[in-house]
Structures are given as structure tokens and as C-alpha cells.
Design goal:
By secondary structure, the chain is α/β, with parallel strands linked by helices. It folds into two domains: 65 residues, Signal recognition particle alu RNA binding heterodimer, srp9/1, CATH 3.30.720; 54 residues, 2,3-Dihydroxybiphenyl 1,2-Dioxygenase, domain 1 (Roll), CATH 3.10.180. It is 19% helix and 28% strand. A hairpin with an 8-residue loop joins strand 2 and strand 3. The radius of gyration is 17 Å and the shape is elongated.
Length: 155
């Protein structure tokens, strides 16, 4: 059984609204079809394309009514924040200067790194649940900058 591609990743979050805003406003995903599970959540798609099963699944944790989630996915302690054993999730992207403006306007801290040997410029951010997101842009998008950074990162 060869693996063909990553289907999606899921995040259990105590603040579904904040997570939705982050993934839609900062990363540009769109909420779309999600089966009627017996627990809160959202499936997020790239540009609203619902031809797959979504890229990011947000799983709402309702401490007042956890039964549906426990029945479907099992009981799992929600850590205070972070990615646990998974260090980060990475996406390929374009439009690094637009992303810098979005992060600045949303008040989101970031870290920039350029990896010349790979031709990548990386931005690292955290979602509202503390999950680290790596955005990989073509290094050519920052070639005109002296050190490959905007000089205004909040991190």
C-alpha cells in the first residue's frame, strides 16, 4: 500500500473561532463542506476547492459536551499549546511581501529564514493553538532585499 499524498492534518482547538480566523485571514483557506459529526469543527480548503477532503481539519473541543468527540476520535488530553510530537507543518506559497503585510496587520509574530541552497525563503508563524506553520516561498521573491528579510518581523 504505497502512500500517495498527505490527505489533511487536524488540530484540536479550544477556540474554534480564533483558529478559523487565522487559517482564513492569514493563510487564505476557506471553510467548506464537513460531514455532520457529533462534535464542533470545520474543514478548510485551498481557495474553497472542495474536490478533496480539505487540507486542515479544525476539531472544536467543547469541555461541556465532549461525548461526540470522544466517541469518534477517542479521549485525548488537549495540551495547553503546541504541536506535541509534530514539530511543524509546512506549505509551499508565493507572495512573500503580501504575507508580511498580512502578518503585520493581523499582529502575528514571525521569523524569516532564507535557505539559499534550496532556493527557499521561509516564514515561521504559530496558529492560535500554538501549532508552528512554515511557509516556503521562492527565494527569488526576496533577492532584492539586502539580507532577505523585511526588517519588520515581530519575532
Amino acid at each position: 500500500m504505497p502512500i500517495s499524498k498527505l490527505a489533511h492534518y487536524s488540530i484540536r482547538t479550544p477556540d474554534l473561532d480564533a483558529s478559523r480566523r487565522f487559517y482564513e485571514r492569514v493563510l487564505g483557506f476557506k471553510a467548506g463542506y464537513r460531514p455532520p459529526f457529533d462534535f464542533p469543527g470545520l474543514w478548510l480548503y485551498k481557495g474553497g476547492d472542495e474536490s478533496d477532503y480539505g487540507i486542515v481539519h479544525l476539531i472544536g473541543v467543547d469541555p461541556d459536551n465532549p461525548d461526540g468527540l470522544i466517541t469518534y476520535l477517542g479521549d485525548k488530553a488537549l495540551s495547553a499549546a503546541g504541536t506535541g510530537a509534530v514539530d511543524h507543518i509546512a506549505f509551499l506559497a508565493t507572495g512573500v511581501e503580501r504575507m508580511w503585510k498580512t502578518l503585520e496587520s493581523e499582529g502575528i509574530a514571525w521569523r524569516d529564514r532564507t535557505v539559499p541552497s534550496l532556493g527557499l525563503h521561509q516564514i515561521f508563524i504559530e496558529d492560535p493553538s500554538g501549532v508552528t506553520i512554515e511557509l516556503n516561498f521562492p527565494a527569488s521573491e526576496v533577492a532584492h532585499l539586502k539580507d532577505g528579510t523585511p526588517g519588520s518581523a515581530l519575532a
